[in-house]
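Notes from hallway chat w/ T.B., transcribed later so I don't forget. T.B. wanted the structure written out for a chain they're using in a teaching module, and asked if we could keep both sequence and structure tokens in one place. Agreed to drop them here.
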Amino acid sequence: MMRNESYTLIVNLIKPLKHEPKTLTFLNLHPTKQAICQKVHNSFIHPIIFTSFKNNKPTMHNMSTEVTAGIKVTVETFYQPTHSNPGQNYFVFSYRITIANESEEVIKLKRRHWYIIDSDNAKREVEGKGVVGEQPVIHPGGQYRYVSGCNLNTEIGKMFGTYLMERESDNKLFYVKIPEFKMIVPSKLN
């Protein structure tokens, strides 16, 4: 890391009505930032994800969109070199998901189900209640955005899955597809 590079630490503090990450900027961060990040993490109740942006500009590697039953899911991915350790086959990516309700119904996100696949075909599944500790309610024309992360054992991988949603009007459950998106270390794109 060059001495004059600026990095931004994205702290995703989920608020009931506002879902944009708050940012804290640090200059000349070095390996001890892990301890700083842990202190920041311990000081908040809500889950957070740390995203380093070189010179305050993220490098987006992939953007995918899928619409199911009027619910549009858009995913943007970012490689996190400062949290990765290639020598140990440890590659960290963050992803920002926007869920836009283009239907006429109020919906609630109940559950998530992820499939994570490394390029060596190692497969993992993650399933659970809500996202980043919440079960957001999204009104027609509204959207919900959150940031999370994933580690891989290879330089290339992909994720896809589903959200289980509930319509408020009749409590009917339905699945919304999360589009497949790739996570690729930038040097592999050359």
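Follow-up for T.B.: The radius of gyration is 17 Å. Might be a good example for the class.
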